[in-house]
Amino acid sequence: MPLIRVYDKNLILSDDSYSEKYWGELSRIIEAEFGISEIKNPNQVEQVLKVGFQYFCQKFEALIQKMQKASFYIFVNCIHEDSLDLYQLQLKKVELGIDENAFAISRRILKIIIEQGCKMDLAGTPNFFKEITINQKEYLRLTEELLYVGEKAYEIVEMIAKNKLFPGSTGTAVEDGEFTMYTYQPYPELYRFIYQDIPKHDDKVALSESIYDFKDILKSEYGVEYDALFGFTSEQLKKPEYRFGLIFLDNLIDTLHKELGYDKSFLHIFYDGLTLSAQNALSVEDCILKNQDPNRFIYRPIVKFFIDNKFYYMIPYNKWGESMVTLTTNAFPFGVYPQEWKQLEVIKNLVQHLDNTHDKVLESPIKALLDEHKLFYDTSVESFKNKRKQNTNIAGTVGDIDILYLDTDNKLIYVCELKHNRSRFDYNNWRRDYSNFKPKYEKQLDRKVEWSEHNKNVIQEHFEVLYGAVFAVDLKEYSVRGIFIINAPTIYMYDGKYRAFTVRDMSLLLKGEYVDVTFDFTLTSTGKKYLIGHPYFENIRKKIL
Length: 545
Fold this sequence. Notes:
Elements: E1 4-6, E2 9-11, H1 19-34, H2 42-66, H3 70-91, H4 100-117, E3 121-122, H5 128-134, H6 136-165, E4 170-175, E5 178-183, H7 187-197, H8 210-222, H9 226-230, H10 235-238, H11 249-260, H12 264-272, E6 275-276, H13 284-289, E7 302-307, E8 310-314, H14 317-330, H15 345-357, H16 359-372, E9 377-381, E10 383-384, E11 392-393, E12 401-407, E13 412-419, H17 427-454, H18 456-467, E14 479-486, E15 499-501, H19 503-510, E16 519-522, E17 529-532, H20 536-543
Parallel strand pairs: 3-7, 6-7, 13-14, 14-15
Antiparallel strand pairs: 1-2, 4-5, 7-8, 9-12, 10-11, 12-13, 16-17
């Protein structure tokens, strides 16, 4: 398959023609170990799927081990840089005319290829561009094969996650000599709904603006201009051939020290924290299972290659931008940052502050919506005011209420728990959210809802003191509703004891336009019809399984 050209960028997607080579071999392995019969027991299903996952991870590593030319990894980097340009177009709602799911997976796998390359003892060449041109067909074929193998590893690990989340949803067998994975009814329709619904929430995600705080402390505390630390990479925009260049990092540090007076010790620590090397790169398996690990390429845009017995560094322009955005919006606010930077006290304190206050990032857009609809509300409620000035403190008992607001049209008291959850993009990672919400966050909200149900008079007097004469509402007949307000869409939204609303959902809810989706389902074995509403997976377990 030739290179795909999209908006003057090069793109490579996986080639299913490799199915016969790999899926056929895996099918024989599965049949020899587990037989051909259909397997439905969740524990046994997981065992089978893990064999498949490990098979593809091992095949991926074996393919990488055969490629020891540095120019191949520079070729892959060029494709990855183009993919980031195309991704930016996607964010602007530009139609690329390609399989967007395959494109998303390909970006992940290109990263893994580069990560594995930094572990290798590579061979250089006097002219990378020339060597890539000569070997382009071979490099293209190998990349397509790696994309196929990596894609299958991701596909199976998603099935493992679904099987763990929703036991009974998944099965396996070997049919006519081919390994087959099943998703049983009614799960396929529900998964399709989630797949289509999740992206609708993305443009309303409340992002931390900590990049500005980060730039400020670099300048005020370390005397360093952020743009100077990576400005040299912009030459890759002016002269695309610079994408094929590698540097000696020590030379860059010496230049910044001599020309701008920057402290060498700081520069070494700063760049070390952004460097991916043989010492910190994860295995293929861990790259997939721990795809938000701080040692991933997503957070470390500098790649240290060992070529012809010397260390060289690759610093891609687009990748630097992606990494810094991801670090400051989806890592810093959750207390995640490079291990090397922990010796930089000011950065350490900044990240700790962001971690302690990141739920407040979500508070601002919700307050704006409540103000827009002129609702009675209060935020960060640790104690309730009364006319005797003897406040009722809840911070030390049930815990503070993030947002408390009244829906006077429907006579509802909303007790809202804000969760500025980390953006995640697959079932394997959504399982983490699910395990946090189910045993931990639900219990926290239980306490606050129960307290509110028994203390409506306290809430009423609080709003009377807060709003004065304009508040003329009797809360005696009001019902209490607990909800989570979350930053990023996650699987818990579809299966929680409490509703979990994104900013988009809250906008619709406050306008009276939020609609619950229900599913009609007929069980083929009995012909019995079911209506499945939220919480969807829990209702499937109760009504059908």
